[in-house]
Write a structure and sequence with these properties.
It contains 5 helices and 7 strands, in the order E-H-H-E-E-E-H-E-H-E-H-E. It is of the alpha+beta class and 176 residues long.
């Protein structure tokens, strides 16, 4: 990144700003057809879960304002990336990649089995982005049970199961 962005743990005082980022990012997903309906953002409870796990990171601009964030939890021995958003004005600058790499480093340091997430398989900036960071689509028998459960929950919340996919990655020796 050619500008001063820093990645640090977020705290509860950042929740409103993180939700604003998520709501703005929702519109990017809407344009790509990945979501429809009213924009929604993470609840205090979800953000507190990431915070409690020590896995809520934010990207701060030089004015110390959050411009992106990523939150994860530990599920069945996996680092599960639950949410990652970068404000549309700050997208395509490497901030999402930096946030995800920071979370992956924490998962690896904790000795977890690997990392997992669910995403839209068709939006051009979702599954392909995660694949560039070593994630692979996990379908059928290759999909861990926690991801199957999460995909089922997403369907109950109205997300199109034909668009959703679980992705996983281990910890390659290169540390990628």
């Amino acid at each position: 990144m050619a500008f001063p962005i820093s990645i640090h743990p977020a705290d509860s005082s950042h929740f409103a700003a993180l939700r604003a980022i998520e709501l703005a990012s929702f519109e990017t997903l809407r344009v790509a057809g990945a979501v429809s309906g009213a924009a929604v953002a993470s609840s205090d409870e979800e953000l507190r879960c990431y915070l409690g796990a020590g896995l809520l990171l934010a990207a701060f601009n030089e004015g110390a304002e959050p411009v992106g964030f990523a939150g994860a939890s530990v599920v069945d021995g996996w680092l599960h990336i639950g949410e990652m958003d970068v404000h549309p004005r700050w997208q395509r600058l490497g901030i999402g990649r930096s946030l995800l790499q920071a979370l992956l480093a924490q998962g690896r340091a904790r000795g977890l089995a690997g990392a997992s997430l669910t995403t839209d398989r068709l939006a051009p900036f979702n599954a392909r982005f995660y694949a560039s960071l070593g994630f692979q689509m996990a379908e059928g028998d290759a999909c861990p049970s926690h991801l199957m459960d999460l995909l089922g929950q997403e369907e109950l919340r109205g997300l199109d199961p034909a668009r959703r996919v679980g992705m996983v990655r281990g910890w390659p020796a290169s540390g990628r």
